[in-house]
Amino acid sequence: MSAKKCRNLILILGDQLSADISSLRQADPEADVILMAEVMAEATYVPHHKKKIVFLFSAMRHFGQQLRDAGWTVEYVQLDDTENSGSFEGEVRRAARRLAPERVIVTEPGEWRVLENMRLWQDVLGLPVDIKTDGRFFCDASTFRGWAEGRKQLRMENFYREMRKSTGLLMDGDKPVGGKWNYDAENRKPAKQDLFMPAPLQFEPDAITQAVLDLVENRFENHIGQLEPFWFAVTRAQAEAAFDHFLKEALENFGTYQDAMLRGEKFLYHAVISAYLNAGLLSPKTVCEKVEEAYYADKCPLNAAEGFIRQILGWREYVRGIYWLKMPGYARENTLKGKRPLPAFYWTGETSMNCVQEAVGQTLEEAYAHHIQRLMVTGNFALLAGVDPVDVHEWYLAVYADAYEWVELPNTLGMSQFADGGLLASKPYVSSGNYINKMSDYCENCDYSVRKKTGEGACPFNALYWHFLDRHADELGTNPRLGQPYATWRRMSGETQQEYMDTAQAFLEKLDAGERV
Ligand code: FAD
Ligand code: DLZ
Ligand code: SF4
Q1: Tens digit of pLDDT for each residue in 288-347?
Q2: Atom of ligand 2 nearest to the CA of 40
Q3: Closest of 203, 275, 283 to residue 245, by C-alpha
Q4: What residue owns the CA closest to ligand 2's atom 7?
Q5: Fewer CB within 10 Å, N- or C-terminus of the chain?
Q6: Quick one: average pLDDT of 500-505?
Q7: C-alpha to C-alpha distance for 400 and 394, rounded to whole angstroms
Q8: Confidence band (pLDDT; 50, 70, 90) for 194?
Q9: Which distant-in-sequence residues (6+ apart) come within 8 Å of 241 by Cβ?
Q10: What value does the mean pLDDT of the chain take?
Q11: Does residue 43 have its Cβ closer than 6 Å to ligand 2?
């Protein structure tokens, strides 16, 4: 390592791989030094999927090289470097000793735990530490706080409309293009196996990625997930090519089949770009503008363009706003008091429930599942079974290549597990087997029968659904969006209700005993 003195020491984290990141804005390649570090603390604070670690380390190494090529001095610490202290703080301390900078500059991290630690650095390192706002989002944390303040109820849809107005995306003056803000009603079609399915663009590992694959195989052998084939983009140019491929091949049908699930079809018409967006390889602004452009050029219908833009301009920004508004208490919320440990099949995929097997199986293979698999299969099951939301949260944070707490926690704890009591979602996302059967072909191939409601061989989602509603009648019975299911429950005979309760109870006992379900 060089012993060059520097003015500013600029730390770039693994999910800050953007050349326009705020920490570099006023930096000077002649006077400042960039620090990037692969550290064990980040690689193990949850047992990340092997592919996620490969993706991030390889993308970091490529980004470090690009910065060097652009004239920056980059101190890049690899995981196996002998002096590597294993943490961000340790690496900043070591670099500060070597380089004696006047100050440390860093863009705010995406996780509370890291920010909390960073705020101590000024004192522990005896150096000014300048933590800059992350400008890669449409709405920063303080603007969101301003929007949220004084509102009786926070809803994504209202926030999204404000964001459409402030960005002008899909706006016709002060009106939404097409006359409606939201075309979700057109986006609920199930898919069929005979549809043409575009695959995401895949990339051969180069020498840098190959070295990281070897490292991860040796150092993270106990982590979950399949390492190969590894095909993710690891540079901005590749990520942009992958996104352009989506625009050309899949965007047109993105909206229509957004909620569909099909056996063996891991990606359908999804963009598969969240890992790239969240690591900084793609810009949310650019992708939204490109989709808007595709709509104006007649390359996709409005339900696709609006649906896609809503996911990024609406949901992605909204969950980030909620995260920074509500942390650190948010992570501890457990309104429905789930306390069951996460079943082992979440880590192995070994279950007779075909829908769960498909969703977990592809997660272990690809570090990817699409939104409805996460929400209505694995999330739905965990909520129906009363799993501890902390366990559920740690699983989602570990297994997906796109998972960072700012985006994963509100989605898991809020949207999926209703642990925040309805702050994020106006009703719990629970369903019986019916919904999964309607939106997928999973049930055709399942050991359980979706049509059987109770007793041996009945789809577990069926009885668990009523068990869930019954056991949470105090908390949820007055929720207007659940009026219909509660009315149906009350209309059932005592005998039918008891059959549901007995079936659910027998299933939960098997689950608790660690038997195959
Ligand atoms: P597409 O379906 O093609 O959507 C395009 C983009 O919209 C995504 O890349 C993503 O950036 C954005 N987006 C869509 N839905 C959401 C959402 N609800 N919140 C935030 N952004 C959204 N997304 C993550 O990026 N990281 C996570 O850790 C994460 N954890 C989740 C956990 C649960 C329980 C659930 C229900 C959802 C989670 N999501 C998470 C949201 C969503 O499932 C993924 O963003 C999406 O599946 C990524 O695949 P894609 O790029 O093909 O998305
Ligand atoms: C997720 C992750 C992993 C696995 N490893 C590193 C790493 O070694 N070095 C690094 O800079 N960042 C890593 N990250 C991403 C960080 O966890 C992320 O920057 C923080 O959680 C803040 O969002
Ligand atoms: Fe899932 Fe039930 Fe369908 Fe089986 S029958 S795939 S468990 S919803």
Answers
A1: 999 999 999 999 999 999 999 999 999 999 999 999 999 999 999 999 999 999 999 999
A2: 8
A3: 203
A4: 38
A5: N
A6: 98
A7: 11
A8: confident
A9: 201, 233
A10: 96
A11: yes
Closest ligand to C-alpha of residue 438 is 3
Smallest-distance ligand from the CA of 49: 2
What pLDDT score does 179 carry?
96
CA 172 to CA 185: how far, in whole Å? Answer: 21
Specify the residue with its C-alpha closest to ligand 3, atom 1. Answer: 355
Q: Is the CB of 47 under 6 A from ligand 2?
A: no
Q: Kindly state the tokens that stand for 154.
A: 């926070």
Q: How far apart are CA 200 and CA 245, in angstroms?
A: 7
Taking CA atoms only, the protein residue closest to ligand 1 atom 14 is: 311
Sign of CA dihedral 352, 364, 431, 514: positive
Structure tokens at 338: 């789930």
Q: Would you say residue 198 has pLDDT above 90?
A: no
> Which pair of tokens denotes residue 425?
């979602």
- Cα–Cα distance measured from residue 213 to residue 58, given in angstroms and rounded to the nearest whole number: 9
Specify the pLDDT at position 3: 52
For residue 494, the one-letter residue type is G
Residue 404 Cα to ligand 2 midpoint, Å, equals 9
Q: What is the mean pLDDT of residues 196-223?
A: 95
Interval 221-271: pLDDT, tens = 999 999 999 999 999 999 999 999 999 999 999 988 889 999 999 999 999
Nearest Cα to 227, choosing from 243, 244, 209? 209
Nearest of 387, 435, 429 to residue 411 by alpha carbon: 429
Average of pLDDT values for 51-76?
98
The structure tokens listed for 177 are 């293009």
Name the strand (E) or helix (H) holding 131.
strand 129-132
Q: Tokens 């809803």 label which residue?
A: 155
User: What is the enclosing helix (H) or strand (E) of 473?
Assistant: helix 473-476
Centre of ligand 2 from the C-alpha of residue 274, in Å:
16
Q: For residue 307, what are its two tokens?
A: 């649906």
Determine the pLDDT at residue 193.
77
Residue nearest to atom 4 of ligand 2 (CA): 43
39 in contact with ligand 2, CB cutoff 6 A: yes
> How far apart, in whole angstroms, are the C-alpha atoms of residue 328 and residue 309?
29
Instruction: Specify burial of residue 142 (Cβ count, 10 A radius: 0-12, 13-18, 19+).
Output: exposed
Question: What are the tokens at 433?
Answer: 């087997």
Buried b (16+ CB within 10 A) or exposed e, 179-218: eebbbbebbeeebeeeeebbebbebebeebbeebbebbee
| pLDDT score of 1 | 44
